Amino acid sequence: DYTVPQRFMILMHEFSHKYINPKFGKNIDNEFAADINALYVYLGLGYPRIEAFEVFASTFMNAPTEQNKMRFDKIKNFIDNFENHNTYMYE
């Protein structure tokens, strides 16, 4: 039941694990790096931020761990900063 932008967000997240994380010296298993790298591409291409919020929220609601709460907070912060032209790749 995902929209096209949501599917693209998921695809970019998985692509980031394999190809972008290692390029920036991050572990292939680093979830936060994959989130941020994927968002950077997704938002840079002009996809709607609300779709990114929704796909992460629905994913994390199915696995409500403390780590996922922290990830969602960092995702929200990154999106807010991106919109203000104040981007960063990692903490």
Task: Give me the secondary-structure topology.
Elements: H1 4-23, H2 31-44, H3 49-61, H4 66-83
Helix pairs in contact: 1-2, 1-3, 2-4, 3-4
Kindly describe this structure.
This protein is mainly alpha-helical and 91 residues long. The chain is built from 4 helices and no strands. The protein has helices at residues 4-23, 31-44, 49-61, 66-83. Helix 3 (49-61) runs antiparallel to helix 4 (66-83). The chain is globular and about 30 Å long. The protein starts with a helix and ends in an 8-residue tail after the last helix. 23% of the residues are buried. The model has no long low-confidence stretch (mean pLDDT 89).
Keywords:
mainly alpha; 91 residues; single chain; globular
Mean pLDDT: 89
DSSP strand tally: 0
Kindly state the percentage of residues in helix.
over 70%
Main sheet summary: none
Q: What is the 3D shape?
A: globular
- How much of the polypeptide forms β-strand, as a percent range? under 5%
Q: Runs with pLDDT <50, length 5+?
A: none
How large is the count of helical segments? 4
Structural class: mainly alpha
Report the order of strands and helices.
Answer: HHHH
**Radius of gyration based on Cα positions:** 12 Å
Distance between the termini: 32 Å
Task: Summarize this structure briefly.
With 91 residues, this protein is mainly α. Helix content is 71%, strand content 0%.
